[in-house]
Design a protein that fits this description.
single chain; mainly alpha; BirA Bifunctional Protein, domain 2; three-stranded mixed sheet; three-stranded antiparallel sheet; 12 helices; about 10% strand
């Protein structure tokens, strides 16, 4: 191995030099200060966890993005976190276990087996805030407002917040009788807007549910897309409630 190759970093992994590191740290502090002023408490989950805990409730995509290795101290398989959000949910549910509303925030590096995009890093810095203990639309409104303030602090030009509601998919998938594993695959296909694969997966589903699944990738855009979704999706209570919630969020 020649001297130059010895100092090469793995693909999509990079150093932050002083100027960039200073900018990243300044932004991190601004955002965490904003979260703290809004009542969100800082937590710092570990970089490694046993995969049984780390990947509980996560989909296949998260499993594929997670680096795994054998812990020499215990012989068990551990994973390097690819997303901090499930870790914060674990802290809320099993360590804090508070009654009522809990507001938590976090910031730390995550590691991905493959980059999420062409120019993406495999070691991005993830920062976020989570609100637990309130199932109402008010919690969603608070988080969206906090996100809007964070984007303004980050000075991201022409920032756009994409809103969706997992309740719509769950209502359709449950009505169609999809098992949990099939729902996971179907949801991944919908997120990728892979219409050809979607047609194959719902080929045996009877209308109007089949047509509803095929309509989902096309129901995006501004507020008018919610009216289109109301026309094209079944008139189920869960779907109506989800669309009403999205209308309230869009009005913010």
């Amino acid at each position: 191995m020649n001297a130059k190759r010895r100092w090469l970093l793995p693909e999509a992994i990079e150093d932050l030099l002083p100027a960039e590191a200073r900018q990243v740290e300044a932004l991190r502090r601004r955002l965490l200060d904003e979260f703290a002023c809004s009542g969100y408490e800082l937590v710092a989950p570990p970089l490694l966890e046993y995969v049984e805990s780390l990947l509980t409730g996560s989909g296949r995509d998260m499993d594929l993005r997670t680096f795994k290795l054998v812990d020499q101290a215990s012989g068990r398989t551990v994973g390097v976190r690819a997303d901090i959000t499930p870790q914060v949910a674990r802290i809320d549910a099993h360590l804090l276990n508070r009654k009522g509303v809990t507001r938590l925030c976090y910031c730390g590096s995550v590691l991905h087996t493959l980059p999420a995009g062409l120019l993406a890093s495999r070691e991005p810095l993830q920062i976020g805030a989570e609100l637990y203990g309130h199932a109402g639309i008010e919690a969603d409104i608070e988080i969206v407002r906090l996100l809007a303030r964070a984007l303004a602090l980050a000075e991201i030009p022409a920032a756009r917040i994409d809103l969706g509601h997992i309740g719509i998919f769950r209502a359709l998938a449950t009505a169609a009788g999809f098992a949990a594993e099939a729902q996971e695959e179907l949801f991944a296909v919908l997120q990728a807007k892979d219409v050809s694969t979607l047609r194959e997966l719902v080929a045996d589903v009877a209308d109007p549910l089949r047509s509803a699944f095929l309509a989902l990738p096309e129901c995006y855009g501004g507020r008018e897309s919610l009216d289109e979704a109301a026309r094209r999706l079944p008139d189920q209570p869960e779907i109506r409630a989800a669309l009403d919630g999205l209308r309230r969020l869009a009005a913010e």
